[in-house]
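User: Please fill in residues for this 298-position structure.
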């Protein structure tokens, strides 16, 4: 490809380990903020996890404020959200059964029929199913992290597995923190995005770890920080190119894929960026906590 070897040189010699402390402190700060957001603000749970009725409408000339003024006095728990543009609105209402949902949808239609151009879709998820879906989703993420730990342990050594899980936990918490901050819908698609982010991030880390393992045999007396720098620089071109091509596809999904897939694409964009960052500045520096070989002073 024209010019890419100049933009991303294959023989780079950046001193990543010199900056590791700054990025570790930055990551700790961001993770603390993410945990704070998740603890006190929480995730904007979609109907998959919250349960209730969802109605998507396209209005004629009315805005979200007009619909809210009509529906709020009639329902105890109703929320409205613009979906892509000011004319498309998502209405969420709480109810506990399919029969209640049908009555609720009919009541909504009667109340706002003159203000709506089209009722595009309606969905109902019961509270039992929604809570079970949330629990199963969290289990899937936890089991994925544990499985990755064992995979890296078997392929490399347990120290590498520890570093990989630290980086993955960092990626997951940061992504969830951004979703909480921006109040983006958290649904089953978001769980799929988190699991995909885990796979992408571990792939990046494994590439760097594989080069570190090779260089541990090749440079038997080289200082560990220098060895890590060499390993990261050896794989930097591949890492950056993979991330850029993945981001091009994800931005295409985000801008052209429609509103339904947009939360998934957004979570993936955040995950790919932070996953690339963590494979260099979290997964590798974590290895400095361990001694891989006895020091040879000869």
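Assistant: Residues filled in for all 298 positions:
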């Amino acid at each position: 490809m024209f010019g890419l070897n100049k933009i991303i040189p294959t023989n780079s010699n950046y001193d990543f380990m010199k900056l590791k402390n700054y990025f570790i402190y930055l990551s700790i700060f961001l993770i603390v903020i993410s945990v704070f957001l998740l603890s006190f603000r929480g995730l904007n749970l979609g109907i998959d996890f919250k349960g209730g009725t969802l109605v998507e409408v396209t209005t004629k000339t009315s805005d979200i404020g007009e619909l809210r003024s009509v529906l709020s006095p009639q329902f105890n728990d109703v929320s409205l959200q613009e979906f892509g543009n000011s004319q498309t609105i998502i209405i969420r209402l709480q109810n506990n059964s399919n029969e209640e949902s049908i009555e609720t949808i009919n009541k909504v239609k009667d109340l706002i029929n003159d203000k709506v151009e089209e009722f595009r879709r309606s969905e109902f998820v019961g509270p039992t199913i929604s809570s079970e879906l949330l629990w199963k989703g969290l289990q899937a993420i936890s089991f994925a992290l544990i499985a990755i730990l064992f995979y890296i342990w078997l392929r490399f050594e347990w120290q590498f597995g520890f570093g990989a899980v630290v980086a993955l936990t960092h990626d997951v918490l940061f992504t969830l923190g951004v979703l909480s901050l921006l109040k983006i819908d958290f649904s089953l698609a978001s769980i799929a995005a988190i699991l995909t982010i885990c796979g992408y991030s571990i792939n990046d880390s494994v590439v760097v770890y594989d080069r570190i393992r090779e260089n541990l045999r090749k440079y038997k007396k080289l200082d560990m920080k220098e060895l890590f720098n060499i390993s990261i620089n050896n794989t930097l071109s591949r890492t950056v190119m993979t991330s850029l091509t993945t981001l091009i596809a994800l931005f295409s999904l985000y801008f052209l894929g429609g509103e339904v897939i947009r939360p998934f694409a957004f979570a993936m964009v955040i995950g790919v960026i932070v996953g690339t960052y963590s494979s260099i500045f979290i997964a590798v520096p974590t290895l400095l906590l361990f001694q891989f070989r006895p020091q040879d002073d000869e």
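For context: The chain has two domains: 4-45+129-289, 52-125.
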